[in-house]
Amino acid sequence: MNKQEKNNLAKAEGFLSIVVNVLLFGLKYWAGVVSGSIALMADAWHTLSDSLSSLVLLIGIKQSQAEPDEKHPYGHERYEVVASIIIGVMLGSIAFDFLIDSIKKFASDEEVKFGIVAIAVTIASIVFKEALARFSFWATKKTNLSVLKAEAWHHRSDAISSLVILIGIFTKPFIPVIDQLLGIAVSCLLFHAAYEVISDAIKPLIGSSAPDDLIGSVTEICKKHVGDQCGAHHFHIHEYGSHIELTFHIRLKKDMTVKEAHDHVTAIEREVKQKHQIFATIHAEPLHE
After folding, report:
1. Of the candidates 188, 7, 196, 198, the residue with the CA atom closest to the CA atom of residue 86
2. Rounded distance, CA 14 to CA 51, Å?
3. Between residues 215 and 194, which one has the greater pLDDT?
4. What pTM does this model have?
5. Which of 12, 114, 133, 209 could anchor a disulfide with 156, C-beta 3.0 to 4.6 Å?
């Protein structure tokens, strides 16, 4: 799948998510008002946040498509990472608001009445949000876009929170404060989702070491082209969205000409690109025999 196809799939997920989430938000919030349920209204806003995050996703994907320029030689694909962080912050803000509302509800005598409408809307939410989550996870595997993974967890956490609400509907007669407790539970789910999204997005920004399996594969490629003495080392990986740069050192025979060294390095870089879709830059050192 090429870059354009990946972006088109991400856009399709974003538009589909917005349509489904806006419809579910309206249904959930209405059911929450009718029943007086803080948890159900919290769940409704959680669903709407998915719609807003999808809008952020679409903007991030559009910005990331800009071609490299003089100030951004590696392109603009880190806009995907920025979009993921924004989605995480939105989740955390909503989680805090509804945690406070749920705590205040303990001091209120307002009665919560769950009915057929609340049950039907909650079940529909579980089905549709889990379907969106599975589609987003599938799209993530196809595109390897971190922002789609953030979207997928956003949908999955909404499906789980709706399941929690459904459990509360049937246990309300036995546990009078169940709505307050579930409101807190939903906010905790949101906090967890926010943490997952933000931590995943920050990793490429602060940098990370190359995974062992990649180092092993690249080392074998080097040995194939220049022999077992290549001594590939000093691996550094730099992520710019789906654009990944890898730098490392290899050792070449001291009597090798510049052209021969260049040809070996170019062959290795080409094979790394073909096998891993990674752009490699190699520093050649003299082999001490």
Report:
1. 198
2. 8
3. 215
4. 0.63
5. 133
